[in-house]
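User: Quick sanity check before I run a bigger batch. Here is a single chain. Can you write out its predicted 3D structure?
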Amino acid sequence: MGLNLLSAQSIEPVSKDSLEHLTEITTEYLTKYNYKDGIEHAYILLEHAENLGDDYYKFHAHNYLGIAYHELKDNPRAKSNYLKALEIVHGLENDTLLIYIYNNLGNIYSEEKGNEEKGIAYYNKVIGLADSLKVPKEKLTPTVNIAWTYMDEKKYSQAYPYLNESLKLLEGEQNNNARSQLYMLLGKYHHKTNELDSAEYYFTQGLKLAEKDSLILPASLICKDYAAMLFEKGEFEAAYKSLEKYDSYNAQLFEKDKLAQIEAANALFDVNEYRRNLEISKKEQAYQDELIAKSTEKILIMVVASLILIIILLILNKINQDRKKLIHQLKEKNNQLRDSRDNAERLSKLKTEFLSTVSHELRTPLYGVVGLASLLLDDKSLKKHESDLKSLKFSADYLLALINDVLQMNKMESNQVKLENIPFNIKELVLSIVNTFEFTRLQNKNKVHYHIDEDIPVDLIGDPVRLSQILMNLVGNAVKFTENGNVFISVKLQARVEDRSVVYFEVKDDGIGIPKSKQKLIFEEFSQLKSSNYNYQGTGLGLPIVKRLLELFDSQIHLKSKEGEGSLFCFSLSLKEDQSPTKKAGFAHEVYLDNLKEAQKILVVDDNRINQVVTRRILEKQNFECIVASNGVEAIEKASSENFDLILMDLNMPGINGMETTKRIRQFNKHVPVVALTAVEIEEVRNEIHASGMNDIIVKPYDVERFYQIIKRNLSAGVESVPKN
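Assistant: Done. Predicted structure follows.
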């Protein structure tokens, strides 16, 4: 959408008072967004101008119709009228009128996908004419519209010079309509370039100007973009208020009966056309009557023909009326569906953003709880509290699992989950899962047995995180629904095809089992088996997540169970064998000591003091020397003045965040390994993390052994990458 030019104020008045009066009335209606009356009077002006053969007013009539239909999103009619006006103005040889039609054609083409440059070309024609006529104020509208076009194309750097030029052209002008729309564009520009204070200023100032002069359209546009910015800042209450204003202004522009009124105006024009045709028909009829009078036979023929013609006209008229009614109903339904879709998309986006924010806010303190509990468990002086500490750590791990389940289901509903292909060790993965459920196993007095086929390649390529989630849910259910029993985990090689291994996974228990009638239900979201028993409460998301994740692997879950006799869950995955010579995650401690005798100085960058303590103590247990920085600026200073073998970098910090801090460190140190330490969902920021120069990612809260593995892997890689003296 661009600024429109309604009339030429500098043209000398025409002597036909009635046409001039119609022009003024039409201009007033369109300025006040009264499109029904504006269209009706534009058609009346066109009819009178055609009767008088006055091209000047025919130009204005078509220009007004183009503006009205453009505002109502009827671009085919708008373009048709603008092109007719352009054809007329060439005959008038009036450069000032040419300025207006070029600008309005620019508005049409700049909104058509693929025709944006054609629209900009028309705007530049306006600027050229304004320069040749020496009327600089006429350059404002096309300059703003060029900026608007680039903004819609998300070419913000190209839009900015035109925004600045527009501000200069507006100096000294009392044009709140243009100023409020320009401020809206400036607010949107600063919002998209993350200069939120400037965006706030222009949005609020533009809205004041629009509301001061009752400029409904600019006010509506500003409220919509301002709300989007407030949502991104997390100011949801203010955002909703801005959206309510937007809905209010939008309703004033397009009430439900507005389209019906416009159809009535179009019908009125059709009737006038019909009347003119009828007058012509009467003249022709008089001539035919003279001929018919000469012969009775001819009279009878003409009567019959006339009756047939009338019947056809009545039928066509009825069809046309029904068609208009259906089109109107279809438009209303389409508008309702579009509104419903937009609202659903908005709510889905809000839900996703809310869950992502909540997960980060919950994971950060959980990191402190899990970390401190792990450290205290290793403290021999607290042996008498070992049971309590294990309960504490289990509760924190259980809460983390619930958070992960809810987020995982939300991501899968939004089609945001994509599999990765990275090297991993199948034995380490299974052992890590067995250790995770040690507390629950002891609590329910179970025994866990596991077997890993020796023929399976140790190192495979796939998505270990998603595979862990599948096995964690299956093993977790087996341990939870079994008491004084056994849980069997079996991993076997089914087949080898070229460089891929087909691996069979099985989790079996002798617990309560699942009745036949419930075996399909348990794979549906939020379903629970025996929900009346408190011991078996949960979210009901585990098995639905397993089912959906296996679908991503092009596999499926199989179940065999009998009530009271236990359950067996199994599936198969085709995984690529990793034949590269590089080291995988999980280096032996001896390898680490051989390669990294002096590489033990680590910089921990985190603004949370509890997390600093946890991370430092975990590292110091492995005899690492730890230096702590509380923010990005301090981290840059320490990294430039001291030598570190590795940097652990938190992402969310006040001032400059972890990614920006890493980019600045990379300007003077390209070799030190930098590992992201974050509670954010890594799928959302993985590409940004690696693009900033970071080498690896640790998600808080983490398994301590997995933490050590990633640290050692990156320290080893750092030693190999340091240039030899």
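The two ends are 63 Å apart (CA to CA).

User: Great, the batch can go ahead then.
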